[in-house]
Design the sequence.
């Protein structure tokens, strides 16, 4: 095994690497250190990022960002503004680095590096769906680990292969030749095709879940990303203290990266402050002031928004001046795939599909009277539709404290935005085109299999495309979930360069990207005690409401 490469002279840290962008000013990339089986670590493209003197350059940029001029031209000082950006599940280093450079530039109304601020991207070691490293590790496990290979695949495959003893009775002590009886006693549960198929199917599902890398990414986010982000912030504070620099931090997370952010804030808060204290600053010297938290498609159970049912989410909300959740009902990754991956690990099965990332906003008159409406600003109420039924985000059975501290969370429902496969554009056209192709195929072949395909395509793609034209379906409590479930199917055609049902919030040219940039460029003023917040609205497809959560 090769020894890890030596560290640069300007990088005294070990659990992460810091790089500066060569061609984008005030843009940096932090890479949580991870070594593969051969001792090689992840590195960004050397043509775009360099490690040498990155920490010195970052401190200099932060010191320069403290100074600005008022409108009358007089110099002044402020906390240096910083955007901390994290990525989500199934994101490779090269893709995240490329996206970070795009978000650093672009039009002023879409840039995350606006107003002289510094942009820092934090890369945690997401593995990547069906990546070569993931496939190799799975094959090694099946080949070399007896409990994995034997229990999941080999025994069930052996049972499906005709053998000399396959005619023996399915009883451990059946009469017959001695060898057949002995084998029958050891393998009799697998001698029936039904049992073998069930066991083989269960094994293949487990292998598929492992190849999806979802559980492995979640482990890496919590156990690699959280402590490494805390170490980076601690090291950065040491440098800031020497130079007398203080910063204000706005955090932007996506999907599983939101889980990392809120856990990291909770851990750092507990480490930096005494029990019971709830300041918005982090660091032993108060170097970091937390201001705006933007969570895009957060892979966080909605149940954690209710008091006494969380470990980290509500605690993190106390630290920020404002919290914004961008969600979409068209997020088929978080709604369908994540439900399958999470239901075996979440404390309750209902937490698997009801995530803050698939919250949709319905008009206040849609909520049944038996469900309590939370304190809010705006005409909409947040609910989740994991698949076929609406659920309120706030559990009506959760206890209410008469004098609880409140934190306002702004929900932005982006379900109708084209960058998130909403509306009636490309997904509908693709769905109807695929249905037409299948109908032509059946007319040509006239087989039962093609008829089966046409029947399901007519339901999922045909009716799903028509459901996209039903206006205000979200505001129907009973029929809305069924219409929404049908309308999900065309979203499978929504994966492209400028469109993605799960990560389209950062696609340039659409309202979600401009909304995030606006929240960074002009952070809303936090409400005072007993005061309601002002809503940051976008004129267009995004619904917005603010809800008070007890923290």
Sequence:
């Amino acid at each position: 095994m090769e020894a890890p490469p030596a560290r640069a002279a300007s990088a005294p840290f070990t659990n992460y690497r810091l790089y500066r962008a060569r061609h984008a000013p005030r843009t940096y990339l932090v890479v949580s250190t991870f070594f593969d089986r051969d001792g090689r670590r992840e590195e960004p493209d050397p043509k775009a990022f360099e490690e040498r003197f990155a920490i010195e350059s970052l401190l200099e940029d932060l010191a320069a960002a403290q100074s600005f001029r008022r409108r009358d031209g007089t110099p002044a000082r402020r906390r240096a503004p910083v955007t901390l950006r994290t990525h989500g599940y199934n994101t490779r280093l090269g893709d995240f680095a490329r996206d970070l450079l795009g978000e650093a530039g672009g039009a002023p109304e879409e840039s995350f590096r606006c107003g002289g601020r510094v942009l820092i991207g934090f890369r945690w070691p997401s593995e990547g769906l069906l990546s070569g490293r993931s496939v190799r590790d799975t094959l090694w496990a099946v080949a070399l680990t007896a409990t994995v290979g034997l229990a999941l695949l080999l025994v069930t495959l052996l049972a499906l292969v005709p053998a000399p003893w396959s005619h023996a009775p399915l009883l451990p002590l059946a009469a017959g030749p001695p060898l057949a009886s002995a084998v029958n006693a050891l393998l009799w549960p697998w001698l029936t095709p039904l049992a073998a198929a069930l066991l083989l199917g269960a094994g293949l599902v487990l292998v598929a879940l492992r190849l999806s890398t979802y559980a492995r990414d979640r482990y890496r986010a919590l156990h690699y990303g959280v402590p490494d982000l805390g170490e980076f912030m601690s090291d950065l504070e040491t440098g800031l203290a020497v130079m007398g620099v203080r910063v204000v931090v706005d955090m932007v997370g996506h999907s599983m990266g939101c889980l990392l952010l809120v856990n990291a804030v909770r851990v750092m808060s507990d480490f930096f402050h005494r029990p019971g204290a709830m300041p918005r600053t982090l660091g032993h010297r108060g170097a970091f002031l937390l201001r705006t938290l933007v969570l895009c498609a957060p892979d966080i159970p909605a149940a954690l928004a209710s008091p006494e049912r969380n470990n980290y989410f509500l605690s993190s909300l106390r630290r920020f001046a404002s919290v914004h959740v961008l969600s979409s009902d068209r997020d088929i990754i978080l709604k369908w795939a994540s439900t399958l991956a999470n239901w075996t690990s979440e404390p309750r099965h209902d937490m698997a599909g009801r995530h803050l990332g698939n919250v949709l906003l319905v008009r206040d008159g849609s909520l049944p009277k038996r469900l309590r409406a939370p304190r809010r600003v705006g005409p909409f109420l947040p609910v989740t539709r994991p698949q076929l039924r609406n659920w309120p985000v706030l559990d009506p059975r959760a206890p209410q404290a008469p004098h609880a501290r409140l934190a306002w969370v702004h929900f932005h429902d982006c379900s109708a935005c084209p960058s998130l496969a909403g509306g009636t554009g490309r997904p509908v056209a693709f769905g109807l085109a695929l249905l037409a192709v299948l109908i032509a195929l059946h007319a040509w072949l006239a087989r039962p299999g093609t008829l089966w395909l046409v029947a399901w395509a007519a339901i999922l793609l045909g009716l799903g495309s028509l459901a996209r034209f039903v206006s205000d379906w979200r505001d129907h409590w009973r029929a809305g979930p069924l219409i929404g479930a049908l309308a999900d199917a065309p979203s499978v055609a929504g994966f492209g360069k400028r469109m993605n049902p799960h990560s389209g919030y950062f696609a340039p040219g659409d309202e979600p990207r401009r909304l995030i940039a606006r929240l960074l460029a002009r952070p809303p003023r936090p409400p005072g005690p007993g005061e309601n917040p002002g809503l940051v609205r976008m004129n267009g497809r995004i619904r917005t409401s603010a809800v008070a959560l007890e923290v």
Observations:
- The first strand starts at residue 16 and ends at 21.
